[in-house]
Design brief:
The chain is of the alpha/beta class. The protein has helices spanning 112-116, 128-132, 141-144, 146-149, 160-171, 197-213, 248-251, 272-278, 302-315, 332-348, 381-384, 399-404, 412-419, 422-438, 446-457, and strands at 10-12, 36-52, 66-83, 92-97, 120-124, 189-195, 218-222, 266-270, 289-293, 388-391, 406-409. The protein has a domain at 10-264. It has 15 helices and 11 strands.
Length: 460
């Protein structure tokens, strides 16, 4: 019988002050204009470290088993975005496993779906690198603002799974802390969210830890490469800046399923790149599982890089310069659709729509149309009415090129042959965007913004 985890961590805050006077990587949105509050808290206690039982992580089916192998003291931070008016809260908390691949915390706190539809968002520093950073440029929390974050510590990523569990309890329906990070809101469900490397860690959480804790009500795995990370890593951390990246495809190929016996919703939403990685471990949609693949997209996009660079400039972080010609179809609006569907799934038992998968050859190659764009899958309007060949095909070698994909704008002559003129194109583009709304992969609010972007991108 599953026993729900017990909270041992304490909450302190709200946190203020420090060298900069604001939380690292805080939202670029004016959240107050949406009726939201932003508050940062510390979470401190003792976290279990787990180990695999009988090499269960080698099993493709995802039915992994773990046991407690020890414990360590930890202290971390979480930024909370919550509706100020309790009546505006929809009862759903999205708890993010912050991504640390870049050597510092990355998470998205700009979603209009979350801000306009009454969710709460909790962004948790879950791993060691988020605090300590990565060489040669250590930009973790402790280095960025020692006055504010110098007391934080996660000694090993082996403790990250229980750190996440304790955060889920600290913001969940049964929380019982003297200081309430949810400010008395009536929380009904907590959904885990992780992207890229964090999705890999959540896959391990689903397969090995959730059966022990029953701490989460649902999971969203975004741009997920189809393999969980090891339960035990000791002192090892992945450094994308210095590790050998000559053959990243071998390390990013899917190897396991996510288990299907938990009775809670699991949603995987992938770009074309991760769909290639997951081809060998695709799972059928079911009453508790949804798997979406999007044509023409990639792990990184031009639009995401613009947001990241704005955050880097504000927080004085050294990051990668905007590469030329990277993919130009962002995944963010798909994530908003997933938030919408996950909430209805849990709150009203309305299952999300099943979407068509990308078409592959028998050898696992993406089938492409005459424009070089992937066939089938979710068709965002930029892929359905293209101005360029956007894909996951890299322009160069190495891990960064692989994640960036590519964008090759059409010539003026090709655009004229396809659409005649700008107004004809925009009319057809609007129809494609509205069709995506009908297919429930776009929210209605997003249509005009996409049309405006398409208008600006027309080169004639």
């Amino acid at each position: 019988m599953t026993i729900k985890a017990k909270a041992t961590a304490s909450v302190s805050g709200p946190v203020a002050g420090g060298k900069h006077g604001w939380p690292f990587a805080a939202s670029l949105q004016d959240v107050k204009s949406f009726g939201f509050e932003e508050a940062e808290y510390f979470l401190e206690g003792t976290a279990c470290c787990y180990r695999d039982i009988d090499n269960s992580q080698s099993q493709r089916d995802g039915y992994w088993r773990a046991e407690v192998a020890g414990e360590v003291a930890f202290k971390t931070r979480m930024i909370v975005y919550r509706p100020k008016d309790p009546k505006a809260f929809n009862g759903t908390v999205i708890l993010t496993w912050n991504n640390v691949t870049a050597g510092y915390d990355l998470f998205g706190a700009e979603s209009l779906e979350l801000l306009e539809c009454g969710f709460a968002l909790v962004c948790l520093t879950t791993q060691k690198v988020g605090i300590n950073g990565l060489p040669p440029v250590n930009q973790g929390l402790a280095g960025w603002d020692p006055d504010r974050y110098g007391s934080l510590s996660i000694p090993t990523d082996d403790a990250s799974y229980d750190v996440f569990t304790q955060a889920a309890i600290a913001v969940g329906a049964d929380r019982n802390n003297a200081i309430d990070p949810m400010a008395g809101l009536n929380v009904k469900r907590v959904v885990a969210l992780g992207a890229s490397q964090s999705a890999g860690r959540l896959a391990t959480y689903i397969n090995a830890i959730q059966p022990l804790t029953n701490a989460l009500d649902g999971f969203i795995l975004a741009i997920y490469f189809g393999r969980g990370t090891p339960i035990e890593v000791g002192d090892v951390v992945v450094n994308i800046n210095t590790n050998d990246a000559s053959a990243p495809q071998d390390r990013l190929m899917g190897s396991n399923l996510v288990r299907d016996d938990l009775g809670i919703p699991i949603f995987v939403v992938n770009s074309e790149l991760e769909a290639i990685s997951c081809f060998g471990v695709r799972q059928d949609d079911s009453d508790t599982f949804r798997y979406w693949e999007s044509a023409g997209t990639c792990h990184v996009s031009q639009q995401v890089q613009v947001i990241r660079q704005a955050m880097q400039a504000r927080d004085q972080i050294k990051g990668r310069a905007q590469p030329e010609g990277i993919n130009g179809i962002p995944m963010g609006l798909l994530y908003d659709a997933v938030f919408f569907h996950m909430h209805r799934w849990l709150a009203s038992n309305v299952l999300p729509p099943i979407q068509p998968k990308l078409e592959f050859t028998s050898e696992g190659e993406v089938v492409r149309d005459e424009h070089g764009i992937a066939v089938a899958g979710i068709r965002l309007p930029q892929a359905e009415l293209p101005l360029a060949t956007n894909s996951a095909v890299p322009k160069g070698e190495g891990i960064f090129a692989l994640l960036d994909g590519s964008c090759y704008p059409f010539s003026n002559e090709k655009l004229q042959s396809l659409y005649q003129d700008k107004q004809s194109f925009l009319s057809q583009f609007e129809t494609a965007a509205l069709n995506a709304v009908m297919q429930q992969v776009l929210r209605p609010r997003d249509v005009q913004g996409l049309i405006d972007e398409a208008d600006a991108n027309w080169p004639l």
